Every structure is written in structure tokens, then in C-alpha cells.
Amino acid sequence: MELQQEPTLLWFIAIYAIIMVIIGMVMSKKVSNSEDFVLAGKSLGPFVLMGTLLATWTGSGSISGGETSMAFQYGVIPALLLMLPTLVGIIVLYIIAPKIRAFGKYTVSGILEEKYGKAARNVASIIIILAYVGIVSYQMKGFGFILNITTGMSVQTGTFIGAILIIFLAMIGGLRSVSQTDAISGFLMVGGLIITVPTMWVIAGGWGEIVSNVPASHMTFTGGLTPIQLLGYLLPSLFLLLGDQNMYQRIASSKNDASSKKAQIGWLIAMLVISPSITFIAFASRSIFPDIDPGMALMATTTVMPIAIGGILLAAAASFIITTGNSFLLSAATNVTFDLYASYVKPQASDKEKLNITKAFIVILGIMSFILISYFPTVLSVQMYAYTVYGAGVTPAVLAVFFSKRVTAKAGIYSMVAGVSSTLIWEVILSKPYEINSVVVAVPIATLVLMIVTLISHRNSHALT
Predict the structure, then answer these.
(1) What is d(CA 37, CA 45) in angstroms, rounded to the nearest whole number?
(2) What is the spatial distance between Cα 90 and Cα 95, in angstroms, rounded to a whole number?
(3) How crowded is residue 173: how many other Cβ atoms within 10 Å of its Cβ?
(4) Are the C-beta atoms of 185 and 312 separated by less than 8 Å?
(5) pLDDT of residue 90
(6) Where does 117-226 have alpha helices with state H?
(7) Taking residues 391-396, what's their average pLDDT?
């Protein structure tokens, strides 16, 4: 079946966008200082916190990449396996959440500074900015897919419109507004998917019809991937989530530990609904639209469903894409302001200056994200790259803060440099040998460097004594 544009669906997107802008403008009036802007005044209850955790994590990475692209390109089982790293990551964050709140830092870089010193904060800030610009970029392209489906406009033009909306909503009210729009988006997506799965199954002709229209490899455990290639898709999301500054900031913004725990339990339960739903919808889409871009698999199904159901799903997809883009853009700009500008350019900057600088860098980094997405062939490719830059460069050092007292400052810094360097060498210089994602190489290297340098440091200190 050929993909046909359905302009009527655009009304659902327009209504959603208007609601989000109104909420953003209303909440922006409650922002009085940088803590309000970055951490929502540490006022988030379990309901809103759950929604913002859910919506921030499940953006275009799932709607256009992640489960969607995996199900379309490789089949049901590889896509379902992609849910496991998220569940493991949520459980680990649940365990360390009280410690995250106790730090009370604006950024992960600030936490690393406590353990490893100022140099670690600088290195981590650069890594986070590089990774988050990449993540924001494919949120913009995901929105471009939506406008392409509904209006037929080019993906590039739609991406530009998505960039404007993401930048504006991130800039206007910070986490004060983003958390509220996230909560609405999260529950809209859960409801939309619950309705969509059975509807799509009927339209696609049932399991037997779907299976008969997909490649035989899509019904195997690895979908035609080698085990190490499959591992290369599973590990990036785990190591991003375990050290993700967005999640740390949201946990830190909760009212108390009880609110944080309730929100994370709700987040885990919601993911048990969302990930399989996206997988089965995208797999059915592979049967109906075999020739489309894999990143459009879920959104393309909205054109063959009843208008009301398709519109709800498309609005939900748009909401996740926009809110995730807002969140990562805000988080990256926070790094620039508090870890770089306030530390080196103007340490005596007033709180109002920091607030204005954060907003300015939201625009600058947003423009960089828009430019970056044109250099990657698919959403899934930039997703794996960005996740690994962060997961290998930051996460091993961050986890050591919570789980090891022996790791030294030198080990933390060397681990971060090794993780990013090995990622860039594998992806850029070596052009990803054997089609294996760099996480399989970069994370072990970063972890080994962390352990080896710690051991050497302790031996040297003992030798001196």
C-alpha cells in the first residue's frame, strides 16, 4: 500500500500545539529565578513527575527510532528486547534516587565535580552538550515526519517547523512549563496506544496476514542481526538512562523521596504498556507500508485508521517528540550556563543573568541541533551515536559516584575521555566496522580505564607511603 497524506490529521497536531503554547505561557509567569526554570522549584508531585519522566524518555527515540525502527527493520523480538534496558535503568535509578536528591545539583557535571574535581565537571559538560544536541536533532526530524505524513510537505521543512516549536517551548518557561506539558503528553500517549493497538491489528488483517507480508528474518530472535550487533542496539539506551542528566534533574525536582519513588514506579508500569504497543504497531506497519522510511512506521499507520483514533495517536506522538526535545535542549543549555559560563566567563553573574543566558543558549543549541540532523541518514543512526557518546563518556564515571568509594579523580576523568574518544574513533574514523554500534567497544573501554587507573592510583599511593 502506498502512503497517502491525510491533511485532516493536521488539526489534531495544531490543537495540541496551541494547548502546549498556552500552558507554556501561563507557567512562564511562575518562573522567578533559575531554580524555578531548571528544577521547577523542586515542587513536582508524583503525578506530574511520572508524566515528565515518561515523556522525556519516550520521545522520537521511540516514535521514530528505537522500538519503531527496530520492529520495522528487524522484527518483533529485537524491538521487544529494546524495552529491557529501559526497565533495568529505571530500577537502578529507583535505588539511587535518594542520593541524587541529596546532591541537589543542577547538572550531572556538578555531581561529578563533587567526586572528581573541576576538570571532570568541564569534560562532562562538553560530552553532555555534544550528546544532547544530537538527541534534540532527531526530535526535530521526528516532527518533520509527522508534517510530511499529514500535509505532504518535505521532511526538511517539517523539521524546521519542529525546531521552532521545540526551541520556543523550551525557552519560554523551562522545567516549570515543560513538566506540565510532559505530564499531559505522557498520559495522552498511553491512552492513544491502548486504543491504537487493537485497531491496527484489525486493519492489518491479523497476525497471520502481517507475518506473511514481512521478511522471514523478522520472525527470528535476532531479526538477521548477529548477537553482537543486537547488543550494540540494546546497550546505548541502558547507559544513557543510567546517567541521563534529564532524569537526574527531574528526580531532584521532586517534592520529596516519596514522590520520587511513586513516580518511578508509575513510569516503569507505563513503559510496560508503551514499548510493546509501539513495537506491535510498527511491525504491523511493516506489513502495510514496506517501502517507507523506518522512522515513519508508527506515524504512517495513522493514515489508515479512523480519523479520531489516528489523530489521537499522531497528537500523542507529536507531544512526546516535542516534550523530549524541550527537555534535552533545556538540559544542555543548563550545562553551558552553570558549568561553563558561570564558572569561567562570569563567576559573579546574577541569578537573572544566568536565567537569560540559559534562554539564549537554548536558541543557539537548538540551531546547532537543526543543522546536525542533516548529516545522519536515519533517526536510528543518530540515536545510537548520541546515546553512546553520553553512555560511554559519562555513565561509568557517574555510577562510580554512587557505588564506589575507591574510584579516584584521575580515573573518572580518564574514563570519560576514553569513552568519548573510542566512540568517535569507531563511528567517524573507522566508519563503524562490521555494522556494529560503538557502544560494544566504547563502554567496556571506559569501564576498564576507570578500573585500571583506580588500581594504579591506589598502588602508587601505597608505594609512596
Answers:
(1) 17
(2) 9
(3) 26
(4) no
(5) 95
(6) 118-151, 155-203, 206-212
(7) 93
Residue type for position 85: P
Q: How far apart are CA 175 and CA 183, in angstroms?
A: 12
Alpha carbons 158 and 331: distance in angstroms, whole number: 24
Q: Map out the domains of the chain with their CATH numbers.
A: 7-387 (1.20.1730.10)
What confidence score (pLDDT) does residue 328 get?
86
254 beta partners: 44
Q: How many CB atoms within 10 Å of residue 72?
A: 28
CA distance 72 to 79: 9
Q: Residue 415: which of 89, 85, 120, 128 has the closest Cα?
A: 120
Mean pLDDT of the chain: 86
Within 8 A by CB and 6+ apart from 197, the residues are: 277, 280, 281
Helix (H, G, I), strand (E, B) or coil at 436: coil
Q: Looking at residue 176, what is its pLDDT?
A: 66
Cell 525502527 belongs to 69
Q: Is 199 exposed, middle or buried (0-12, 13-18, 19+ CB in 10 A)?
A: middle
Structural contact between residues 44 and 253, judged by C-beta atoms closer than 8 angstroms: yes
Q: Give the C-alpha separation, 423 to 427, whole Å.
A: 6
Q: How many CB atoms lie within 10 A of CB 90?
A: 20
DSSP run (H or E) holding 322: helix 307-334
DSSP 377: S
CB atoms within 10 A of CB 10: 17
Whose grid coordinates read 485532516?
8
Cα(359)–Cα(98) distance, integer angstroms: 29
Beta carbons of 145 and 299 less than 8 angstroms apart: yes
